[in-house]
Input
Amino acid sequence: NAGVMQNPRHLVRRRGQEARLRCSPMKGHSHVYWYRQLPEEGLKFMVYLQKENIIDESGMPKERFSAEFPKEGPSILRIQQVVRGDSAAYFCASSPPVGGQGNSYEQYFGPGTRLTVT
Amino acid sequence: QQQVKQSPQSLIVQKGGISIINCAYENTAFDYFPWYQQFPGKGPALLIAIRPDVSEKKEGRFTISFNKSAKQFSLHIMDSQPGDSATYFCAASKYGGATNKLIFGTGTLLAVQP
Output
């Protein structure tokens, strides 16, 4: 059973470009969370999505950042007009639905996408 | 009220010793407390977790102690090994509410010396 998959693993963007990060949850998981980890810091929650719905985006910056989890395909975190301060590791986690296999409150993380803005 | 405070920031333990990492939370609505282990360049891996209905949970060499009245919980790693050298994060969440987002501590860098 494959774990959470993220791609790309490393992404380099120039200031002003767009960054698009993809996350495929574990099989059977329908909840996706995005977290950001700045160098030498802990993980900060950004957004929580279920299929086709944003449940909690309280950690998302109000501008330039957006996320989606379509009915088909991976979840995508999009950062428009990137700035140097966006350089960080972005992690996706997934959990099963309530009533599904496993505990719905356990979040399993992917390997992350390391974004570097030059 | 959303913070989770973790200490120490770094820890050096001799092989075979006990590693102890502490966390404290403020929000009494939190009811799920996991610990994650992260190696450099990797994603966090769920290590062990506890709900507030028990005061201790043990899995192999890893034990969580939970003190609900003090709003504190700790990770104990018995017989620490060099392979345990990693960064450890505690976290907390309110399960079943509008969101299951995890609030993380700032991490503890553990080095186990051979």
